[in-house]
Amino acid sequence: MRKKQRSIFLTALLTGLLVAISFSSIYGWSPWKKKDSTNESSQEGKGIFGVTKHSNGNTTVDLTPLSYEDGKLIVKISVNTHNVDDLDKYNLKEITKLETGSRAIKPVSTPSLGGHHNSGKIVFEVDVLPEKFSIGITGLDSPDKREFSWP
C-alpha cells in the first residue's frame, strides 16, 4: 500500500511540474530570465507598457501600450464581437485619437477591422512619450465613446 501511495504522489508531482512548465511557456514567464537593470531604469513610461485597458459592450476592445521607439508609440489593439456583423465599416484611423494635455493626435497606422476577432497595432507619432495620456475611440458600436487612460 505504501508503494502505491508513493507512486500516486510522484505521478501527481510530475503532472504538476508539467502543468507549471506548460503555463510558463505559454505565458512567457521564466525564473531564469534576468532583468536588465540599466535598460529598465532608463526606459521612459515603463509603468504604461504591458498595461491592458478594457472596454466591454457589444464589441470588446483591449488596448495595450507595447513600446515607444523613434518618436512612435505603438499600442496593441484587440477588437472582438459576436453581436456586430460589419466591423469592416469602422475605420480606426478616423475614430481613434491619443490625447495628452491639450493635444489630440490621430494615429498614423491602424489595422483594418473585419469579421469577429481582430488585432493589430496602432501607431501614434509623438515627439516625447507623455507620462499620462488617454486614447479615445468614438463611434465603434456601443458604447459610442470609449476612453482608455494611462497610468
In short:
The protein is an alpha+beta fold and 151 residues long. 24% of the residues lie in helices and 35% in strands. The strands form two sheets. It has a four-stranded antiparallel β-sheet, with no helix packed on it.
Description:
By secondary structure, the protein is an alpha+beta fold. The chain has 2 domains: 2-33; 44-150, Immunoglobulin-like (Sandwich). It is 24% helix and 35% strand. The chain contains 3 helices and 8 strands, in the order ααβββαβββββ. The chain has helices at 2-27, 37-42, 92-95; strands spanning 53-55, 59-69, 72-81, 96-100, 103-105, 117-125, 133-138, 145-150. The strands form 2 sheets. Strands 1-2-3-6 form a 4-stranded antiparallel β-sheet, with no helix packed on it. It has a 4-stranded antiparallel β-sheet with strand order 5-4-7-8. A hairpin with a 2-residue loop joins β2 (59-69) and β3 (72-81). The longest helix is centred in the first third of the chain and has 26 residues, at 2-27.
The spatial strand order of the largest sheet comes to 1-2-3-6
What is the distance, rounded to the nearest whole angstrom, between the alpha carbons of the first and last residues?
58 Å
Shape: elongated
H/E series: HHEEEHEEEEE
| CATH topology annotation of the largest domain | Immunoglobulin-like
Largest sheet: 4 strands, antiparallel
The chain-level mean pLDDT equals 82
Number of strands: 8
Q: How helix-rich are the residues, as a percent range?
A: 10-25%
Q: In DSSP terms, counting alpha (H) and pi (I) runs of 4 or more, how many helices?
A: 3
What would CATH call the class of the largest domain? Mainly Beta
Low-pLDDT sequence parts: 29-43
Task: Tell me the number of structural domains.
Answer: 2
In terms of DSSP E residues, the strand content is 35-45%
